Amino acid sequence: MDYKKFYKKRFFAHVFSFPFIWAPLIPLLFLDLLLEIYHQIGFRLYGLPLVKRKMFIQINDRNKLNYLNFFEKIGCMYCGYVNGFFLYAKEVAGRTEKYWCGIMHEKKPGFKTHMDQIDQDFAEFGNEADFKNKYLQD
Q: Which residue windows are transmembrane per the record (predicted)?
């Protein structure tokens, strides 16, 4: 799938989708709070090791890249938080599932589990040429 951002060609689509991308932030922050309360209390009660949040959520690296504009940096921080939070939540949920019921699901064609990996074709961190090639060219 081609994820190149044709800024001039897709300006309206980007502006139109903006509220739908950012609207989940407040509910996600609330979910994050509830998950963290469960994580801190439940895992201690179960005797499970705590999940290291900093291993999943990273929001302060891409904003240091000089070749990104202000809005791209804010977007990168948002994506770093949201995608990292979901990975963190998946890890907490997976460890909870293993504690309460460590039975694998039946294997079915096309069924995705939390163990599956997603192949990401991201630009290499700090590589401006790779970023421009993958995201800014027509």
A: 12-35
pTM of the model: 0.76
Whole-number Å distance between alpha carbons of 3 and 55:
26
Cβ atoms of 45 and 77 closer than 8 Å: no
Give a three-class secondary structure readout of the chain.
CCCCCCCCCCHHHHHHHHHHHHCCHHHHHHHHHHHHHHHHHHHHHHCCCCCCHHHCCCCCCHHHCCCCCHHHHHHHHHHHHHHHHHHHHHHHHHHHHHHHCCCCCCCCCCCCCCCCCCCCCCCCCCCHHHHHHHHCCC
Give the model confidence (pLDDT) of 78-127 as tens digits: 999 999 999 999 999 989 988 887 666 677 888 776 555 444 566 777 88
